[in-house]
Amino acid sequence: MKKKVEKASNTKRVLLIILTVFIFIFIFIPVVINLFDGSKFGNVALIPIEGVITGSGGGSFGASTLSSKDIVSFIEAASESNQVQVIVLEINSPGGSAVASDEIASAVKKSEKPVVAYIREVGASGGYWIASASDHIIANKMSITGSIGVISSYLEFSGLMEEYGIGYERLVAGSKKDIGTPFRKLQLDEKDLLQSKLDKIHDYFIDEIAENRGLSMSQVRSAATGEFFLGVEAKQRGLIDELGNKDTVEDYIKREHKLTDVNYITYQKEVGLIDVLSGVASEFAFKIGQGISSVIGQKHNIALI
User: Fold this and answer.
1) Are the C-beta atoms of 131 and 117 separated by less than 8 Å?
2) Which of the residues are catalytic?
C-alpha cells in the first residue's frame, strides 16, 4: 500500500514538473519577450501583406493566406496610434478575393496617416489594388506588378460522367440556382450571365485604379488586360511612382515626412502554440473535406488573382 502511495506521489510530482516547464516555455517566456520587444516602439508602422488575400485567412490549397479583417484592424490601429507617423505596406501578394481586396484598399484610403506601399516581389491583381490606394508606391524593378483583371473558373466533367454512366438529376427552384455546377455543361446564356458579372467587377477595378493613381480611363484600360508587368514596365505606365528597395522606402519617408530615423513597429498576427496546433488540425480537416465535398459543393470563386 505504501509503495502505491509513493508511486502516485511521484507521478503527481512528474506531472507538476512537466506542467511548470510547459507554462514557463509557452506562456511566461513569450510574455516577457513581448513586453521587451523593441518592435513595439517606433515611428513607422510596417504591415506585411503576404499571401493570397481572403476574408478570413482561410486555406487556399496550401498557399499562404492573409485575412482582410486582420489587415484592416492593423491599418486602423496604426492610424490611431500617436507614435506612428507613416504606415508602410510591404506587399508580396498575387491577389485574391475581390471583396477582401476592396476592404483593405478602403481602409488604406480612410487612414489619417500617410501610407507607402512597397512591392518587393509580387503586387498583382488584388495586391496591386491595395497598393494603388496608398499615397506612394515603390516597387523592385523586377517585381511582378499590375495584372488588372478578374477570374472565375471551374472544372467541368459532365463528359467524364457520361462515359462512366453517371447521371446528374437536376432539381432546382430558380432556373439559375445551379449555374456553374461541374456536373453539366454551361449553357450559352449562363456563360453570358457569368461573364457580365466579371465585366462589372473588372470595370469597378479599373475605376478604382484610375481614381487612386490619377490616370485616365484609357490609360488604365490599356493596362487592364490581366497582363502582369515588371516593376520597370509598371513605372513607365504610371502604375507605380518609384523603383527601389527597402532603403528607397526609408529614404522617401525621411525626405518627404521629415523623419530623422525610421524605426518600425511591425503589425502582424502573432502565432502561438494553440494557433499552430489548430492550424495543423484545420489544414488536415480541409484536406479531408476537400476530398469528400469538392465534387459535391464546388462554387464559383471570383478572384483578383
Assistant:
1) yes
2) 125, 177
Model confidence pTM above 0.85: no
Kindly state the average pLDDT of the residues 158-185.
88
pLDDT band with cut points at 50, 70 and 90 for residue 136:
very high
The upper half-sphere exposure of residue 70, i.e. CA atoms within 13 Å in the direction of its Cβ, equals 18
Torsion sign over Cα 165, 170, 175, 179: negative
